[in-house]
Amino acid sequence: MNTFLKTAAAASLMATLAAPAFAAAHIDASTMNCAEFNELEAADQAKVAEMALSEIGEGGDEGRAELLMRTCERSLDATVIEAASGQAGTD
After folding, report:
1. What's the pLDDT at 22?
2. Mean pLDDT over residues 24-48, rounded?
3. Do 61 and 87 meet the contact criterion of CB atoms below 8 Å apart?
4. How does the average pLDDT of the chain come out, rounded?
């Protein structure tokens, strides 16, 4: 019984740690909305912001990245691409 509990605990820990890495590898900035963006960790938000800015031709523009962050704080239904462009969605 003790071995079973240790094995189960190790398996659940591995699954918990693998989930964020798996999710980060499958990020699609063109379909992600701001509510989903806000749930990401800071490093993943930076990756998504860079992908969105690259898609609209503004890659590396820190002002646009700040605009995206502010827009996503206010308008959860906007897509990340809309937020990067300064559009607020339909909220």
Report:
1. 45
2. 86
3. no
4. 79
Phi, psi for residue 58 in degrees, rounded to 5:
-120, 30
Q: What are the residues whose beta carbons fall under 8 Å from the beta carbon of 30, sequence distance 6 or more? A: 55, 79, 80, 81
H-type helices in 1-91, by residue range?
2-25, 34-39, 42-55, 62-74, 80-84
Strand partners, 33: 79
pLDDT band at 87 (very low <50, low <70, confident <90, very high): confident
**Cα(43)–Cα(27) distance, rounded to whole angstroms?**
12
Residues 6+ apart with CB under 8 A from 23: 44
| pLDDT band for position 2 (cuts 50, 70, 90) | low
- CA neighbours within 13 Å on the CB side: how many for 70? 9
CB contact set of 82 (below 8 Å; sequence gap of 6+): 71, 88, 89
